[in-house]
Amino acid sequence: MFLLVGGFLVSLPKSAKATGASLYLSPTSGSFVADSTFDVSILVNTGGAPINAVSADLTFPTNQLQIVGPESSSSFISVWIAQPTFSNSEGKINLSGGLPTPGVNTSAGNVLTIHFRAKSPGQAKIHFQDSSKVLANDGNGTNILSSTNDASFNITAKPPAGPTISSATHPDQNSWYNNKLPQFSWESPGAKAISYAYDKNPSTEPDTTAEQFTAAFSAAADSDGVWYLHLRVQANGVWGGTSHYKTQIDVTSPAKFTPLIEPARVTVSQRPVVSFQTTDAASGVDHYEIKVESLGNSQTNAGFFTEQQSPYILPVLQAGEYRVSVRAYDKAGNLSEGSANISIVGTGTTQLMHNIWFLLGIAIVILAIITLIIWWIIRRRRRKNLMEPAASQSNYI
Q1: What homologous superfamily is domain 164-249 in, according to CATH?
Q2: Which of 7, 111, 300, 339 could be cross-linked to 294 through a Cys-Cys bond (beta carbons 3.0 to 4.6 Å apart)?
Q3: pLDDT the model gives residue 12
Q4: Average pLDDT, the chain
Q5: Cβ-contact 317, 342 below 8 angstroms
């Protein structure tokens, strides 16, 4: 049998087998997850003697491995006698190639790199067949392959994806809720154990301490803010990815406040202006609602809240006493209420009568003052008149 290498024939005697060269795989072992890819290189150790041809035939389990493709860019082979071919259905790869004289002398010459894809869990052994050869550059094509080193890889199951989490109490992860006891449930077929954490860190990874599997969980938030459930499950002995579920919790009402009435709480204006403002530490203020109720007329005492913005001009109010109530709602639905009373004095005819009585009162006061002044003047003149005759008699004597 002859091989054509670099334009010349190399004899391949069947029985002539010297010692020294070896074919081996790198890496020889490892663990890979199903659906991942990895590389295995075919290497040659010439044993200190130059070689000019390599022929390699390998087998692999088709259930566990699949060849994606060979890669020869880093190979020392310059002439391929038989281009690398493979069959994923039969689990085989074959190649033959060499290089001209003087050949190569190496302890780790790269013959070919093979890209594998891990398919399913199990032990995958890549094996050199006895037909593999390493030919010396001795003019006779002596097969000096003395040993081969196979490789064995552990293919593990693909980790399950993070479970799909939902919450009946906090269904929208972007909304705020005034419930600090959220309930969760999830779907994870085949899961046997779980590991979870509930905290304010969005990227926490639960540890691998297995807890009894359950498909539901109730957490407790001890303060307002944004909380996260971190959950991973174990299936087929493998821990899956972590799923994160956000809950926004606010059980505290907005800060207390008192509405401001302008121009004053007692006023003749029939349309006072109400101003209001407060804060909410967790979710923030969402909106305000106002109700105006009469305190003196039972028939109009009933009112209802309507959403308004500050400042708010009240509707026309008749003379009387009123209470203005303002409610502040945060984004979780908590509310805080403030109120202020208003006294509307005199509108229409009532105001006119009030003005008349006011002016009449002023007139009475002025008349009284004038009367006192006149009385004081008259009294002074009388005293003066009484004193003048006495003074005349004294001068005469």
Answers
A1: Immunoglobulins (2.60.40.10)
A2: 300
A3: 43
A4: 88
A5: yes
